Amino acid sequence: MKKLQIIGLIALSSMFLLFGCGKETETEPVLQPVETPTPVSENVQSEDAQPEATNAPQSDLPPREGMVRSRITNEWVDEEIANRRPVSIMIPNTKTASQYGISTADVLYECNVESSITRLMGIWENWDNLEKVGNIRSSRDYFMYWSFEWDAFHIHYGGPFYMDDLINRKDTEHINLNIDMSKTYHFRDIAKNDFDNAFTNSTLIKNYIDDADYSTSYRDNYSDEQHFLFASDQDPNMLTQYEDSIDAKVVDMSLAYPLTNCYFEYNDETGLYDRYQHLSGERGGPHIDIATNTQLTFKNLLIQNTYYEIRDEKGYLSFQCHDTTRDGWFFTNGRGIHVTWEKTADYSATRYYDDEGNEIKLNTGKTMICILEDGDTFTVDGKVIEAYNHK
């Protein structure tokens, strides 16, 4: 069917033509202004956009033999990819960050690390075609707990000593590029500065996994774990079944992330949330993947208020990743609802529930997860959303 669609499109086209990083050698750079690339305008429908209605539903059938639904996005992926463990990669989010390949992440986390600086962690299910991904910076122990729940190989460039207990566990399988002094598994390349220039690629990741004798198969019992629940493509979750759902055209995280100042605008044409950043208070532009010059977009937004503490005088933070009935929000298709979340074990998924206690259904596509310090606020269409808990 997919081949017929491609042939039809070609024919039509022809007609029209006619917490201090004690183990990290790098230091956080001072934020400096940098010119934001202009996104390429492409007249191509997003993979996450819903196709036009046809006489018979087609999305329940795999595009070709050997494809299955992804547990991460619900998109059709090769069975080999679906059965292989993903990778999680730590990426800075300052003006000096050189972000390559970030738009291809299936799930993207954002959380404060210290001094209101946010850091990103992407989850890649298919990491076969990463030619240059990064730049890669240090991790934190709470990011590792979020990586655990995907059973991902955690790729980072060192981190503070608060991570030592997790790193030294026998079940922790990670790739610490800070101890890769010979640059066997990473490389330095053209970037915005000398701090943010450590990258890796698919070949080097595979080499490390082979050399470390890590298994790429999901661990025992994990393969049965359904991380997210998804609505069907024929019956997407519009959130209109909730009487208290709200319009959500602009979800602005500036109050919670005062340096990044990211926000999301709902695009009616694609059905996705486009991500923007106005770093250091400047009303900026699209959040761009330098590798492809494309803007980051998401089908689902999850906001997760989380208990936190300040660990030391340097401002390193600690977040309580394991918790029950904490506050949050879910946004998709231009609407939003209040949710609660829980995570009960290291390798268990974070679950999100509506106010009736039912696990929510995400829509097929990429997901952004914003971790907020408990009590922080954000705005939706200009209205401040206060954090609260439903017990």
Overview of this structure, please?
The protein is mostly beta strands. Helix content is 11%, strand content 30%. The protein contains five helices and 28 strands. The strands form seven sheets. Strands 3, 4, 5, 7, 8, 12, 19, 22, 23, 24 and 26 form an eleven-stranded mixed β-sheet that branches. Strands 18-15-14-13-27-28 form a six-stranded antiparallel β-sheet, with no helix packed on it. The N and C termini lie far apart (49 Å). Mean pLDDT is 84; it is low at 1-58.
Q: Can you lay out the helices and strands and say which pair or pack?
A:
Layout: H1 2-17, E1 67-69, E2 76-78, H2 79-82, E3 87-92, E4 107-114, E5 117-124, E6 133-134, H3 141-148, E7 153-156, H4 164-167, E8 174-176, E9 187-188, E10 198-200, H5 202-211, E11 229-230, E12 246-247, E13 250-252, E14 262-267, E15 272-277, E16 288-289, E17 294-295, E18 297-298, E19 300-306, E20 308-310, E21 317-319, E22 323-332, E23 335-343, E24 351-353, E25 361-362, E26 367-373, E27 378-380, E28 383-385
Parallel strand pairs: 3-7, 4-26, 7-8, 11-25, 19-26
Antiparallel strand pairs: 1-2, 3-5, 4-5, 6-10, 9-10, 12-23, 13-14, 13-27, 14-15, 15-18, 16-17, 19-22, 20-21, 22-23, 23-24, 27-28
